[in-house]
Amino acid sequence: MFYKALWYQNYKQTRIIIWMILALFILHLPFQSILSLERWKEQEHQAQQVEDYTYEIQAWEVLEIFSQGTLPILLSLGIIALACLLIGLERNTRRNDFTFSLPFKRQDLFLAKWCYGTAAITLFHIVNFFVAYVIIYQSEYRFALELANWIEIFWGPLLGFIMFFTFTLLIGAISGEMISQVILTFLIGIFPLGIFFLMQELINVHFRIFISSPTWLEFLTPFMYVMNHPSLASTIVFPIILTGLFLWLGVHLYQKNKIEHNGEFLIFKVLNPIFLIIITICLSLLGGMIVSSLAPWNADLLRIISYWIGFTTFLLFSLLLTNRLLSMNITFRGKA
After folding, report:
1. Rounded distance, CA 115 to CA 253, Å?
2. Quick one: average pLDDT of 131-154?
């Protein structure tokens, strides 16, 4: 997995997105910490103009610098793009025909991609984290760092990004090209919580019963690991377990890949009926939720009728769309 040729090939394929991810890490940590210091100074100055009022920095303001907010979501999009260039684009261009012809095991090919992406994410995160940490530590607001622990600001985000990258590579191992890799990453990445909220709306519309989402669903939802980092041991344990599981599955499935299905939605045709059912049901439930939301909240019967109109309409369109997706083949000429 540490063959120089494979690392060079991976960098050649992804050098643009790698530098974009680095830029996002710089914006997310050092640059955001500088802006936060200036904002705290301004807010403290304004508080001094008000009698009997003292400005206090809140824990969520520290977490927004290191682990929450919009930038981690943008970083997750960058990670998806990185994984898609490493696997999905190879299938679209049929470049992995060349890659598989190299004198390396498929296991080594997949692990080289994983190690390359993981090393980049880890290096970028560590360097920029400590730069941001030092920027705040040497200021008069160093006490703000005591409002959050290292699980919330360092280990949680780092392990979350690595787990999410591993998950995206796993999706690449079962998808046949880049577009399907993106679609399936989003679909499966939010599926546990997403399907719960869709079913929750179905029950709420028909019976006016609201069911709170169980906490354990968040641990099964890959996207939550780039946005939510509670101060718990599970914040470290679960990403490590999922990373190991996704990596093992990714290596196993990558070894079973059939290159004759490159460019198709899924590499493994046995999965087609499963995804046809899942995508159709999810889109139908989503359609029911959208259309029912247009009806007045106090008109129960109208909301139920609207729900099933939306459900049926989206069911028909989702069947046509999903069948089209599963039968597509997108390949184009690319350089090895």
Report:
1. 17
2. 92
- Tokens representing residue 15 in the block: 């050098």
Amino acid 333: pLDDT: 58
Are residues 311 and 288 in contact, defined by beta-carbon separation less than 8 angstroms? Answer: yes
Gap between the terminal Cα atoms of the chain: 19
pLDDT over 90 at 54, yes or no: no
Name the amino acid, one letter, at 265: F
Q: Which residues contact 81 (CB under 8 A, 6 or more apart)?
A: 17, 20
Tell me the three state secondary structure of residue 175. Answer: strand
Both structure tokens of 102: 């190299």
Query: What predicted TM-score, i.e. pTM, was given to this entire model?
Result: 0.92
Summarize the confidence of residues 40-61 as an average pLDDT. 82
Cβ neighbors of 205 (< 8 A, separation 6 or more) are 288, 292, 303, 304, 307
In degrees and rounded to multiples of 5, residue 174 shows phi and psi of -105, -15
DSSP designation for 50: S
Domain ranges for the chain: 4-327
CB within 8 A of 292, min separation 6: which ones?
201, 205, 303, 304, 306, 307, 310
Do 189 and 221 contact (CB within 8 A), yes or no?
yes
Question: Average pLDDT for residues 189-205, to the nearest whole number?
Answer: 92
User: Three-class SS of residue 212?
Assistant: coil
Q: What are the pLDDT digits (tens) for 218-259?
A: 889 999 999 888 777 878 999 999 999 999 999 999 998 877
> Are the beta carbons of 143 and 222 closer than 8 angstroms?
no
Quote the tokens at residue 282.
Answer: 């999810």
Question: 101-119, pLDDT tens digit by residue?
Answer: 778 888 999 999 999 999 9
> What is the reported pLDDT for 336?
46
DSSP string, 61-124: HHHHHHT-SSHHHHHHHHHHHHHIIIIIHHHHTTHHHHHHHSSS-HHHHHHHHHHHHHHHHHHH
| Amino acid at position 222, single letter | P
